[in-house]
Amino acid sequence: MSVIPATGREWHLVARPDGWPKPEAFALREAPVAEPGPGQVLVRNLYMSVDPYMRGRMNDVKSYVPPFQLDQPMEGGAVGEVLASNADGIAAGDHVLHFGGWREYAVVDAKSAVKVDPELAPLPAYLGVLGMPGLTAYAGLLEVASFKEGDAVFVSGAAGAVGSEVGQIAKLKGASRVIGSAGTDEKVQLLLDEYGFDAAFNYKKGPVAEQLKEAAPDGIDVYFDNVGGEHLEAAIGRLKVHGRVTVCGMISQYNAPEPPAAPRNLALVIGKRLRIQGMLVQDHQALQPQFFEEVGGWIREGKLRYRETVVKGVENAADAFLGMLRGDNIGKMIVSFED
Which of 58, 78, 107, 329 could be joined to 309 by an S-S link, Cβ 3.0–4.6 Å? Predict the structure, then answer.
């Protein structure tokens, strides 16, 4: 049996950010490690995820998910090894995906933990390409945007964990053209050379509307929005009649002190009969078996590629989160607790 330590480190939110979060909003604290109660397991976390939606949970506002509580451990996706189990179906030594991230040791309800197999895929992949971001990409494109063969697709934030998978799935499903935007020339080349996008541009090098018009002269059928703001306005301008928009995220607004102006061309939604739909991945859990089978197959066959940016050490988790907000990562940003 694994030795259960007396204490472990966990990250707390200690101040609600106004605009861009600062390092002093977070504190790494020592806390007792509890024994699992009935129906629970104790997990030693090996990898944790940092994601854009976590910024919204730092605000004390009503939303689809409760805000982080001050001076309490934060939460997020994590993968780890079960040290002790008080639940049927999960044993010590198993590896599980769960939501008790931002800490070295987590006691979680077994019903909310999913067993994962490190022989089928590397453990970090269950936080990215085969995890929540991957299912977001899969469901957001195929179900929410009603993608069909021959569609032209534009993806913002295309070098991130979600966007890079959206573009590749669209290509594998027969898109006529896939365009992506990213924030550096290095990321633009990655989209073209490794992920197989037909066109890509650096949104920092000129107006998005002009660059998108050049990349998609015949217009687009689907826009997968990870950014909002100027990108959404530009996409509305290039969408064809009956175009569809999946609004997955609006990272350009998460740290803005004032609400941005709405896209100035929203009236085009009427004449073009556009469908703009927000999405939350938890609404699409029924797709998970199909997602694992299809995307897992593409990965094994080398048809779908992915990148990860790994930051080592629980003590660097807050820095990894802030770096992800700045766009320092290529692909999924992950924190490794292993030496």
Answer: 329
For the segment 111-158, what is each residue's pLDDT rounded down to a tens digit?
999 999 898 889 999 999 999 999 999 999 999 999 999 999 999 999
What does the domain layout of the chain look like in residue ranges? 7-128+307-336, 132-282
Residue 75 makes CB contacts below 8 A (sequence gap 6+) with 68, 99, 100, 101, 102
- For tokens 């607790």, the residue is 337
Alpha helices for the chain (secondary structure H):
53-56, 132-139, 161-172, 185-193, 208-215, 230-238, 268-272, 288-300, 317-326
To which residue do tokens 């008790």 refer? 100
Supply the DSSP symbol for 31. Answer: E
One-letter amino acid at 251 equals I
Measured CA to CA, the distance from residue 75 to residue 60 in angstroms comes to 15
Q: What is the pTM of this model?
A: 0.88
Sign of CA dihedral 28, 32, 35, 40: negative
Fold for domain 7-128+307-336?
A: Quinone Oxidoreductase; Chain A, domain 1 (3.90.180)
pLDDT tens across 160-175, in order?
999 999 999 999 999 9
Measured over the CA atoms of residue 120, residue 123, residue 127 and residue 133, the dihedral's sign is negative
Which pLDDT value is given to residue 175?
98
Cα–Cα distance, 32 to 171 (Å, whole number): 49
Q: Write out the two tokens for 116.
A: 């994962």
CATH superfamily for domain 132-282: NAD(P)-binding Rossmann-like Domain (3.40.50.720)
